[in-house]
Amino acid sequence: MKYKMGITYYFFLLFIVTQISTAQFSPHFQNYTLSDYNAGNHNWDISKSESGKLYVANDNGLLEFDGLIWKLWQLPNKTTIRSVLAFNDKIYTGSYEDFGYWEKDGKGNLKYYSLSELIGEKEFLNEEFWQIILHKKSLVFRSFLNIYKYENEKIEIIKTPSTVMSCDIVIGEIYISTLKNGVFILKDKKLIPITSSKILENTKVISIVNYDDVFLMSTALKGCFIYKNDIVIPWEAEISQYIKQYQLNNFLKLDNGNMVFGTIKNGVYITDYNGKILFHISKENGLANNTVLGVYSDSNDLLWLDLDNGIASIDLNSNYSFYNDVSGKLGAVYDVIEYNDVNHIGSNTGLYFLDKENKLQFIEGSQGQVWYLEEIKGELFCGHNNGTYIIDRNRLKLISGYTGGWVIKKAPEQSNVLYKVLILV
Q1: To pair with 230 at 20 to 30 A between CA atoms, which of 142, 298, 313, 328?
Q2: In the predicted model, is pLDDT for residue 25 greater than 60?
Q3: Nearest Cα to 113, choosing from 127, 99, 97?
């Protein structure tokens, strides 16, 4: 259709200072850097107390965060803390050749008490305690060599046949995954193999969770597996190829059934119950670091990430998702429109669209200021500093050479007449 353009002139000076922060849509997230919490780069584990305070296992000690202020509490020997669990009024931590708990004194300061002293003649052999989990009335501390159960002021040591990679509570039972010998269930102080299949031997099992009437087992480099009745089969899901490629490091199943996959090489993936990717958050779209050392979800639907350099929180309860252009190519955004199921973005650097993979694509010939995008009678109009265009299959078609197209409106009761407001800057 041919359009006649009526022109109305407005003269004013425009300053835009707001710039949206490339990659893909994600929930809102916030990075906390070393300059925020003033401790070590590496953060290994996170837990939240009933009082609402967040506790982080850090290179330099135990970080405490009340939502505004970060505090660092150091062990007597000032070693790295690898694991943390807030339970009742105590904060349990695991470190190098030691584990114990922190408790507030009369002045509100945290004081540390070692539990490993309950072991008689202990020989930890350079053990570090990487995981703490609650099982019924006992606490379980995991190193790479052994399992330690703490209950009624006593500690029971469970020896394992090879390196312990993870420890999980599934339907009330303790499952212990070893590197060379597969997965065991702990029954009456004995380790019983759960399957005769060799598929999990020499495999780093990250996590085991209940998945309907089967178990879902996630591994570092082999993807995920479904286990039931001594049978182990690969889980064919969209996420599988990515966690194999980018090395899964931690896994979390959320209360709503969605799942979190933290990787070594490419940030975190959030999927639905069937493993379909909902969001991918990485350094490409603003995450401070791509190596996720730990994941934790609190009661406020905030997903916390321990990073190789920093900490991040992701708001899983938000109804909004964001597109973050950390490359700076996009510039200052002036208008956005969804046209034919494609998001088009007009900025001071030109016109862009998001492809099927939500990657930013530039429309050639659109260099310069885009002021306005509008769909009129099934066609997409672009008000540009160089004139007015129709966008057809990601190509520009000039329909008016008057510069400074600001707003385009259809003339009342005249189907082929449009009015254009010009801006002269």
Answers
A1: 142
A2: yes
A3: 99
